[in-house]
Design a protein that fits this description.
Length: 374
């Protein structure tokens, strides 16, 4: 999972406060600072990265003067700081090592530190050159997060996309609020998952009696064409549309998906499914649009009520999947043109968009295994 931290070492508290507040509002909640830890914590739920041993993440690397405008930590020294990392880890601390790559030996030192530290923050004058690729490759099997210190969006994009994997995160040092917002948007875009949706042919539609139906209300607004991936079978999920459309019966609820009965699966981040009955306030689910693009949404509320249900069965290339949905005009799937269509109007032969998973599921995770669902 890609992430960003913000460097908050600015002479003026007002400037520092503005930078941190913008970062926090943009979803960046890790701050590197040395002087105003207590004041920063009052601004919100923030993780402090500092040379203070009581910090959330202890930074090994001393405060330096930088370029005179944005002070940065000094780089690691070879022996003393490597020993300090080991000592802090032995005491159960979370540790970030800070290294400025100016020579081949310091590149090697970064790899050494990465075998012990939780995070390695790398500073380089130009990430277009090879050292970053070398360090990423060398540490790919280690349990360490690699962070590149960057001044702007373009450098952040380059670092996050270097090699197939890129760095795990960036440490952004800038006083430009627009750069903070652009980097936050970049990470959100990189982290968004994509699901290849296909048009399945409806083969059966029929009422099946009543059951406990789940409505998932999120803290995000959904547009026309957006919903959630829901289904009774883990191998195939239907794109169930949000209640973002106006109706003669009820007002629109663009934050809501009337998802289906308690047993059904819903797709959540990192290609994992959960039962609708498990979802509660504060959990994360994926909202998905008609193109298969996703966003992570926080659940604000779940409503479970007894409602009449209907069975919908669809087939794609000999793969047959089913789901149950509330039998109501306001519940919609998405057709192959990307348009929402009411379950009250769906009939055999219609095409609806679904996601098919090649693997089975074990505790919500996709696995290579044969499971029969019917």
């Amino acid at each position: 999972m890609k992430f960003a931290w913000i460097m908050a070492e600015y002479p003026s508290w007002d400037e520092k406060k503005g930078i941190i507040t913008t970062a926090l509002e943009s979803g960046i909640n890790h701050v590197v600072d040395f002087d105003d830890v207590e004041s920063i914590k009052k601004l919100g739920n923030i993780k402090i990265v500092s040379d203070n041993k009581e910090a959330d993440i202890v930074l090994v690397g001393r405060k330096g003067e930088g370029d005179g405008t944005i002070p940065l930590p000094d780089s690691l020294s070879e022996s003393k700081d490597l020993a300090a990392i080991g000592e802090l880890k032995s005491k159960g601390k979370t540790v970030a090592a800070y290294i400025e790559i100016t020579s081949k030996r310091l590149e090697e030192l970064a790899s050494e530190a990465g075998r012990t530290a939780d995070y390695v923050i790398l500073v380089g004058k130009d990430w277009k050159i090879i050292p970053l690729e070398n360090i990423i490759a060398d540490l790919q099997r280690e349990n360490v997060k690699i962070i590149a210190a960057v001044p702007d969006y373009e450098e952040a994009r380059l670092a996050l996309e270097t090699l197939e994997h890129g760095t795990d995160g960036v440490l952004l040092y800038t006083s430009d609020i627009s750069q903070i917002k652009k980097v936050a948007s970049l990470i959100e875009r990189i982290e968004s998952e994509h699901y290849n949706l296909v048009p399945a042919t409806v083969t059966l539609v029929k009422p099946v009696g009543s059951g406990d139906r789940v409505c998932v209300d999120t803290s995000s607004m959904m547009s026309i064409g957006e919903g959630m991936l829901i289904g009774s079978y883990s191998r195939g999920l239907f794109l169930v549309h949000s209640e973002s459309m106006e109706s003669e019966y009820v007002a629109s609820r663009p934050f809501r998906v009337n998802a289906g009965p308690v047993h059904a699966y819903v797709m959540t981040p990192n290609n994992r499914t959960r039962y609708l009955s498990e979802i509660e306030t504060g959990d994360e689910v994926l909202t998905v649009d008609k193109e298969g693009n996703t966003k992570t949404a926080v659940v604000g509320r779940v409503k479970i009520e007894k409602r009449p249900l209907m069975l919908i069965e669809a087939e794609y290339e000999d793969v047959k999947i089913r789901t149950l949905l509330q039998n109501a005009e306001t519940i919609r799937l998405v057709n192959e043109e990307g348009e929402p269509v009411s379950v009250a109007d769906i009939k055999s032969g219609d095409k609806v968009m679904v996601y098919l998973d090649k693997g089975a599921r074990h505790f919500g995770m996709s696995i290579e295994e044969t499971i029969i669902e019917k």
